[in-house]
TrEMBL record:
<dbReference type="InterPro" id="IPR045001">
    <property type="entry name" value="DRG"/>
</dbReference>
<dbReference type="Pfam" id="PF01926">
    <property type="entry name" value="MMR_HSR1"/>
</dbReference>
<dbReference type="GO" id="GO:0005525">
    <property type="term" value="F:GTP binding"/>
</dbReference>
<feature type="domain" description="TGS">
    <location>
        <begin position="288"/>
        <end position="366"/>
    </location>
</feature>
<dbReference type="InterPro" id="IPR004095">
    <property type="entry name" value="TGS"/>
</dbReference>
<protein>
    <recommendedName>
        <fullName>Developmentally-regulated G-protein 2</fullName>
    </recommendedName>
</protein>
<dbReference type="Pfam" id="PF02824">
    <property type="entry name" value="TGS"/>
</dbReference>
<dbReference type="InterPro" id="IPR006073">
    <property type="entry name" value="GTP-bd"/>
</dbReference>
<dbReference type="InterPro" id="IPR027417">
    <property type="entry name" value="P-loop_NTPase"/>
</dbReference>
<dbReference type="InterPro" id="IPR012676">
    <property type="entry name" value="TGS-like"/>
</dbReference>
<keyword id="KW-0547">Nucleotide-binding</keyword>
<dbReference type="InterPro" id="IPR031662">
    <property type="entry name" value="GTP-binding_2"/>
</dbReference>
<keyword id="KW-0342">GTP-binding</keyword>
<feature type="region of interest" description="Disordered">
    <location>
        <begin position="368"/>
        <end position="399"/>
    </location>
</feature>
<dbReference type="InterPro" id="IPR012675">
    <property type="entry name" value="Beta-grasp_dom_sf"/>
</dbReference>
<dbReference type="InterPro" id="IPR005225">
    <property type="entry name" value="Small_GTP-bd"/>
</dbReference>
<dbReference type="InterPro" id="IPR031167">
    <property type="entry name" value="G_OBG"/>
</dbReference>
Length: 399
């Protein structure tokens, strides 16, 4: 029996099993088996070379946004309107067959926008090059899920299910569970909060399913079985997602109002160019980019070319700012002067752990090199030769 058949068999068993106190341990074991099989499905086949037939493109700019959705929902048209890059759009499905990149210039930053081929139901199992599309989405900072406002609401659930099947967690944060494998000592189970979805026995069963018999587990929140499995797997990607409903010009105003009020949702129309500026602003807020301007000593700040930082790409502290400029800058750094919303007063002397905010101005003050032997008349050495015979004699005075 292949991996896909085993996955379908486990899913069918979970569907016909009633959910109650008596079956929660059995369901937990089935979820662990399902997660192991899906991880095996994503691994490359044995004996194959490292290169594949994917369409990954080189990272460029200060952030990356991926467009994901069903065929013929307006992804290529949206890319053309936001970036100016031509992406072929037609009235038939699967017009885009490869990844087409474009660059958005917004707020002095460059954001890479990727137009990916449309994915269909079963993409997590490899249908319609779905694995290559989702692999590109994993390397993005933000996912724009483009949906058709005139179609059924089930498309959103289908796409979310396909992305979660391959380890993508949309609009979620990593669970507060500490997990560490050990060589000996058995399983240590501790918790700092009351647990309502999982207990010690179920945790032991899930760990034994993964053949883990020595580990340390600490729950810092009321987590579920799925959260524990995600921590054990360790290959989950937590990414932000905005649901973009296109073609709102073909539905009624009541439907548009209903879609716009859903969480993490935005309504646009590429045909009438409606709400595209709000889409760019929402992308900027979700990515959390921080622009930091530099100020040389004794000069005006340079507001033309900012240093762009983000929490997902390194961090937004003074130390991350110095490392972004040059790795050796931290050795000579004495302190920094900061102007902006992150400073309590202007200017503020800050250290390496100070968190920077958008449009801050930073001046770096480096350590001065120490002069050996004192300064001025307190110098303890001269440049003259040690021996008198080696000194240059003065020219005789003219009489």
């Amino acid at each position: 029996m292949g991996i896909l058949e085993r996955i379908k068999e486990i899913e069918a068993e979970m569907a016909r099993t009633q959910k109650n106190k008596a079956t929660e341990y059995h369901l937990g074991q089935l979820k662990a088996k399902l997660a192991k099989l899906r991880t095996q499905l994503l691994e490359p086949p044995k004996g194959s070379s490292g290169g594949g037939d994917g369409f990954e493109v080189t990272k460029f700019g200060h952030g990356r946004v991926a467009l994901i959705g069903f065929p013929s929902v307006g992804k290529s048209t949206l890319l053309t309107m936001l970036t100016g890059t031509h992406s072929e759009a037609a009235s038939y499905e699967f017009t885009t067959l490869t990844c087409i990149p474009g660059i958005i210039h917004y707020n002095d930053t460059k954001i890479q926008l990727l137009d990916l081929p449309g994915i269909i139901e079963g993409a997590s199992e490899g249908k319609g090059r779905g694995r290559q599309v989702i692999a590109v989405a994993k390397s993005s900072d933000l996912v724009l899920m483009v949906l058709d406002a005139s179609k059924s609401e089930g498309h959103r659930q289908i796409l979310t299910k396909e992305l979660e099947a391959v380890g993508l967690r949309l609009n979620k944060r990593p669970p507060q569970i500490y997990f560490k494998r050990k060589k000996t000592g058995g399983i240590s189970f501790n918790t700092t909060v009351p647990l309502t979805h999982i207990d010690e026995k179920l945790c032991y069963q899930i760990l034994h399913e993964y053949k883990i018999h020595n580990a340390e587990v600490l729950f810092r929140e009321d987590a579920t079985v799925d959260d524990l499995i995600d921590v054990i797997e360790g290959n989950r990607k937590y990414i932000k997602c905005v649901y973009v409903y296109n073609k709102i010009d073909v539905v009624g105003i009541d439907d548009v109002d209903k879609l716009a009020r859903q969480p993490n949702s935005l309504v646009i129309s590429c045909n009438l160019k409606l709400n595209l500026d709000r889409l760019l602003a929402r992308m900027w807020d979700e990515m959390g980019l921080v622009r930091v301007y530099t100020k040389p000593q004794g000069q005006q700040p340079d507001f033309t070319d900012p240093v762009v930082l983000s929490t997902d790409r390194g961090g937004c502290t003074v130390e991350d700012f110095c490392n972004h400029i040059h790795r050796s800058l931290l050795k000579d750094l004495k302190y920094v002067l900061v102007w902006g919303t992150s400073a309590r007063h202007y200017p503020q002397h800050c250290g390496l752990s100070h968190g920077l905010q958008d449009e801050d101005v930073v001046q770096i003050v480096k350590k001065k090199e120490k002069e050996e032997g004192g300064r001025g008349r307190f110098k303890s050495h001269t440049n003259a030769p040690d021996r008198i015979s080696d000194r240059v004699k003065k020219a005789p005075l003219k009489t």
